[in-house]
């Protein structure tokens, strides 16, 4: 890594250290223990709860003892996405981060700046001897990306501070005061299988080359979803009377990431003949409706030597293809109160079919509770209409409703004006933030969220702007120093 000369040096040193420790959602034990040991060595308060959340605390600097305590908050886990040809093992290998042209990114994988940079900013404050601050608690949650399970398991006594700075948003120059709520709609169904019909040949249909991205932050960009596009091609095959059976399907890796790749194994009447040409035509037509970052879209058809042990029946194949083709994806509604902000959306994040067992995960987001409820119900009705009765709605993430009278927001704006000139943009975010959980757990807690510029989160294109990290550090330390009596 070549991050050692970047500024602010303590922030980048902590981020480099985080890159050395695997920290997929649900697998944060190693990074939690490393930070706990670091905190104990520095004489900080250290406590962890049964869910694995970690709180590091530091006494107020002289003169700040009577000022309100502040909680700095981020999450330990990261989304693990890699390019198809990458051999990276997220359970073992460090993230290979490097700087180029003012941006830090990783080789062939997600970087983990979401939320590693936020964690690093908080750790650097704990380490600093020259940053005045009130009593500090750094709350580092687990399993945020998989459903905010760490935050949802917190007890009200976890922290004492009632001012909270969430460091998990990704557009410098914006102060966030609200976020979308969400639910997951999941399907786990067992479908009847049978032997492939005589004379049918096995082929793999692989779709890739898409940009993907964060299902909240990037959903408005109109990027293609690999599962949906593959289903569209299979639907087109069926409409053109191509006789095939689905044996397996695999697409997407996370409910909150736009699927970049998908693959289906088919038993196909007549084998590959003409199928690649049909795929090429489908790609050419689809590219007309996709943004430039999806220009790499491709479909490859490969004959397989071994026939699948079993396939879905013709009827079940039609049901699955029709369901995926009809599933809502993308923006459903734009906010009527926040110009340019998505109100409601759905992401088809995961699709798996193997041995007749189908798993789907759809993530519904909205800035209003009714938007989450209504779109989730629509998806449930679609599932039941297609005969998929085994479904559930789970993983509710609460809406964080903006507080227009936030004193912390007013203070942050004052520090921003003094430090950078002009006004920061006050925003709500279509992605989910743990602040929604905290607002329900700690009524009356004053909260805002900000962070440096991160692009391509939840995809191997993830990168963080170096200059904006330094600005975020200046804003963070400026707010802490300005907390009033």
Structural account:
The chain has 485 residues and is an alpha+beta fold. It has 2 domains: 9-179 and 399-482, Aminopeptidase (3-Layer(aba) Sandwich); 183-397, 2-Layer Sandwich (Alpha-Beta Plaits). The chain has 11 helices and 25 strands. The protein has helices spanning 9-19, 29-41, 113-127, 149-152, 226-239, 275-287, 314-326, 369-385, 407-420, 435-441, 466-482; strands at 45-48, 54-58, 70-75, 97-100, 103-106, 136-141, 163-166, 174-179, 181-190, 193-194, 200-208, 213-214, 244-251, 257-258, 262-269, 298-303, 311-312, 330-334, 342-354, 357-366, 391-397, 425-429, 446-449, 454-455, 463-465. Strands 9, 11, 13, 15, 16, 18, 19, 20 and 21 form a 9-stranded antiparallel beta sheet that branches. Strands 1-2-6-3-7-23 form a 6-stranded mixed beta sheet, with helices on one face. β24 and β25 (463-465) form a beta hairpin. The longest helix has 17 residues, at 369-385. The chain is elongated.
Entry summary:
The protein has eleven helices and 25 strands. It has 485 residues and is of the alpha+beta class. Strands 9, 11, 13, 15, 16, 18, 19, 20 and 21 form a nine-stranded antiparallel β-sheet that branches. It has a six-stranded mixed β-sheet with strand order 1-2-6-3-7-23, with helices on one face.
Topology, please?
Elements: H1 9-19, H2 29-41, E1 45-48, E2 54-58, E3 70-75, E4 97-100, E5 103-106, H3 113-127, E6 136-141, H4 149-152, E7 163-166, E8 174-179, E9 181-190, E10 193-194, E11 200-208, E12 213-214, H5 226-239, E13 244-251, E14 257-258, E15 262-269, H6 275-287, E16 298-303, E17 311-312, H7 314-326, E18 330-334, E19 342-354, E20 357-366, H8 369-385, E21 391-397, H9 407-420, E22 425-429, H10 435-441, E23 446-449, E24 454-455, E25 463-465, H11 466-482
Parallel strand pairs: 3-6, 3-7, 7-23, 8-22
Antiparallel strand pairs: 1-2, 2-6, 4-5, 5-25, 9-20, 9-21, 10-17, 11-15, 11-16, 12-14, 13-15, 13-19, 18-19, 19-20, 24-25
């Amino acid at each position: 890594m070549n991050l050692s000369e970047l500024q602010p040096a303590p922030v980048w040193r902590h981020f480099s250290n985080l890159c050395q420790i695997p920290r997929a959602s649900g697998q944060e034990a190693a990074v939690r223990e490393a930070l706990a040991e670091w905190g104990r060595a520095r004489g900080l308060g250290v406590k962890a709860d049964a869910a694995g959340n970690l709180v590091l605390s530091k006494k107020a600097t002289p003169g700040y003892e009577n000022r309100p305590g502040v909680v700095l908050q981020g999450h330990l886990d990261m989304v693990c996405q890699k390019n198809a040809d990458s051999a990276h093992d997220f359970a073992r290998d460090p993230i290979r981060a490097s700087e180029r042209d003012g941006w830090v990114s990783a080789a062939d994988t997600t970087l983990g700046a979401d939320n590693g940079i936020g964690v690093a900013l908080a750790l650097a404050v704990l380490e600093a001897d020259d940053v005045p601050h009130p009593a500090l608690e750094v709350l580092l949650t687990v399993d945020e990306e998989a459903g905010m399970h760490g935050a949802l398991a917190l007890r009200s006594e976890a922290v004492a501070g009632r001012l909270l700075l969430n460091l998990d948003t990704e557009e410098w120059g914006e102060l966030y005061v609200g976020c979308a709520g969400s639910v997951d709609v999941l399907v786990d169904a067992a479908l009847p299988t049978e032997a492939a019909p005589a004379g049918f040949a096995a082929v793999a249909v692989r779709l890739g080359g898409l940009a993907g991205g964060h299902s909240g932050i990037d959903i408005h960009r109109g990027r293609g979803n690999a599962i949906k596009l593959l289903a569209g091609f299979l639907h087109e095959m069926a409409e053109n009377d191509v006789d095939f059976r689905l044996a397996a399907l695999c697409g997407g890796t996370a409910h909150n990431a736009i699927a970049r790749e998908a693959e289906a194994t088919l038993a196909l009447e007549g084998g590959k003949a003409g199928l690649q040409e049909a795929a090429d035509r489908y790609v050419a037509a689809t590219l007309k409706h996709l943004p430039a970052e999806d220009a790499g879209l491709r479909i490859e058809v490969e004959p397989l030597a071994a026939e699948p042990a079993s396939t879905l029946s013709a009827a079940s194949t039609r049901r699955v293809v029709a369901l995926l083709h009809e599933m809502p994806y993308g923006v459903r509604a734009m906010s009527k109160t926040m110009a340019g902000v998505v109100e409601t959306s759905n992401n088809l994040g995961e699709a798996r079919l193997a041995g007749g067992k189908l798993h789907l995960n759809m993530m519904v987001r909205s800035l209003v509770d009714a938007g989450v409820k209504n779109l989730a119900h629509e998806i449930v009705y679609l599932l039941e209409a297609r005969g998929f009765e085994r479904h559930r709605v789970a993983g509710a993430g609460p809406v964080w409703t903006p507080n227009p009278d936030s004193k912390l927001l007013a203070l942050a704006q004052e520090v921003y004006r003094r430090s950078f000139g002009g006004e920061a943009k006050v925003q709500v975010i279509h992605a989910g933030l743990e602040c929604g959980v905290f607002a329900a757990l700690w009524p009356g807690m004053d909260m805002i969220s900000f962070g440096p510029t991160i692009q391509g989160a939840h995809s191997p294109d993830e990168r963080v702007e170096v200059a904006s990290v330094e600005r975020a550090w200046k804003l963070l330390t400026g707010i802490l120093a300005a907390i009033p009596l």
